[in-house]
Each structure stands twice: as C-alpha cells, then as structure tokens.
Amino acid sequence: MLRKAADSEEQSNKASEETQNTRSSDLGEYGNPNYHQMNSCDQEKKRKEQEFRKQLNQDARKTAVGTIHQGIKLIIHRPEATLQQREEYYRLSSGIMPVIRELVRKTMPLLEYEVSANFTRNHIYGSRFHAESIASRDFRYFSKKRPPEETPSLVVALRIDESASMSAFGRLDAAKRAAIAVYEFCDQCGIPLLIYGDTADRSKMEQMSVYAYSDFSKKETDDCFRLMHIQGRSNNRDGMALRILSEKLLTAPKQTKLLISISDGQPKATPDYTGNFAVEDVQNTIKEYTRKGIAFISAAIGQDKDVISQIYGKDRFLDITDLNKLPTQLVKIITRYL
Comparing 96-110, 154-168, 213-227, which segment has the lowest mean pLDDT? Predict the structure, then answer.
C-alpha cells in the first residue's frame, strides 16, 4: 500500500551523509564530543565579568559603612549591549561626532609635551613652592617640570541621574548624547573615564541601583554601547552615588580628579532622604571629597536648577538651558583640567 517515491532513496542517502558529516564535526576520534574553543572563551569572559561586578558591589558597599547610607540595599549592574543599543548609539552619535573630532584635534596639541617648560603641581617636593596649597594639608606644596613623555594627569567620572523625571522634555536623549561625547573625547585623548548611572527605590530589596557603563579599571569595546541603557527609572539618592564614584576616583593614580554630575532635580529617596537632610548629605559629601582632591561640577538640566546651584555652589554649577549644547559644554569643561 505504501509505495516508495523514485527519488526517496537518493534523498535518504543524501540526508544520511549530511547527518554523518554533522556528527563527524561534533564528535572526536572515539565518538567523544568536541568542545569548541569559542564556548570556552565565552565562559571565561562571563566568569571574569561576574568577578568584576562582584568586586564593584563589594567596594561600593564599603563606601556606605559609617555613613547615613549604611544598610541601604545596593546592587551594581553591568548591562550588556544588544544590537538595539548598537543601532541607537550610531544614530545618536552621528550628529555630534564631527564636533567631538574637532575638539579632539584642537586638544591633542595640548597633550604633546615636546618642550619641557610645563610644570605639574601637587608634589611633595619640586622647584616651585605654592603657598595656597598648604590648605590641603597633604604636603603637596610644590610643582616641578613635566618631562616630555609625561601626559597630563587627569581622570574623569561622569555621573548620570536616572530618576524618573529624566524621561521628560528630551533630557534622556541629552544625557545619552553627553555621555557619548564625554566617552569618545576621553577615549581618543587617552583620558581614564568612569561613566555610572544611578537611581533609588526600584524595590524593597534594591534601594540603590548603580549602572557601571564604563570603568577605567576594566575598559571594554562594548562600553560605549552600554551607555544606551541610560533611562529614567525611579528616585535618586545623590549623596551615595557621589560617594561611590569619588571613592573610585581616589583609586586612580592621576593627580587631577574631576567628577561631573548630570541631574535634573534635587535628591529624593525613601524613606526620609529628602529636603534639608538630603541636601546636607550631598554638601557634606562634596566637602569631604573636595578635601581629598576631587573637583566637582554639576550640570543642571531640569526645573530644580536653583536648588542644585545652592547644593553644589555657584563655582561648581553649570546651568544647561539648551540641551543640544550639553555634550560640547561638558567636553570643553574637561579640556580646562588638562
């Protein structure tokens, strides 16, 4: 009743050959499976990434010990870049890359010290004495000539407020473009960089969320694409975020340490991190780490510009009225510290 088609034998033999070829590529000499090197590399990469994220969490939690943030449940995330993030990165970066390249072109001559007539400050010995440095109490009162091969000693941290209000009025895209501009500029100029985002109160088990997009201690090619995970989420616990980034900056051997904060509102998180209590915490954090040598700049892009100005002080405050100018303004600020 069942009749075999004329070409069935040929198809069956062909399929059998393909199956045999497939098996032979997966099996070893005695039928043991072959383990592909790519899988081994991926597993090792994943293991190292997990270790790095674990270390970031341990270090960040230590910074909260002895502060008002002790006991806050913190998690540091390392988002993975997807095809969607890559496409968004290229779309957003296309409009600002010509400007960044021009700024890099103008900056590079500053980084080439062919004539050793430049002086670096903050040394415990040297040929020039700076009386104004005595207030720092770190014994670094002198400056000395910079050797021709020595590059400017600068490390930069960019902190991005990822509170829910950042989703309004184009602030999110402005923050992403600013992050791209800072990343590309620092990368092309060889300046070590941190770019972290943060939010608070995502859940009872995660009261503080930090997103490590780019970290100078583990620089990767996908870092720029991670930036596209920046988004408006929940509340903001600014003092804790600044403390985590500041401690990270202190581990860098560079002399000049710059922390730029992009925010659209004043600090606010549950249960009681708000009002004067939160403001005083941010101000105390800034004072503490300013004494340790960190320079702070706040780029205010929201309705609470006056409050942010009072928190950081007018000398550390940058009022961004036109969000389209935010990327270039931040890059120009960085060049002042070279």
Answer: 96-110
- DSSP per position, 125-141: S-SEE-GGGGGG-SS--
* Amino acid type, 175: A
Alpha helix (H) residue ranges in the chain: 8-26, 37-63, 83-93, 97-107, 171-189, 223-226, 238-250, 275-291, 305-312, 326-336
The CATH number for 42-113+151-336, chosen from 3.40.720.10, 3.40.50.410, 3.30.365.10, 3.30.530.20, is: 3.40.50.410
Q: Which residues of 161-188 are buried (b: 16+ CB within 10 A; e: fewer)?
A: bbbebbeeeebbebbbbbbbbbbbbbbe
- Strands 256-263 and 294-300 turn out to be parallel
Contact residues for 249 (Cβ-Cβ < 8 A; gap 6+): 155, 157, 194, 257, 259, 294
What's the predicted TM-score (pTM) here? 0.77
Cβ-contact 154, 256 below 8 angstroms = yes
Q: Please list the residues that pair with 259 across neighbouring strands.
A: 157, 296
Q: What is the pLDDT of residue 274?
A: 94
Domain boundaries, the chain: 42-113+151-336, 116-148
Q: How far apart are CA 95 and CA 112, in angstroms?
A: 28
CA–CA separation, 253 and 42 (whole Å): 31
Q: Would you mind telling me the total number of residues written for the chain in this entry?
A: 338
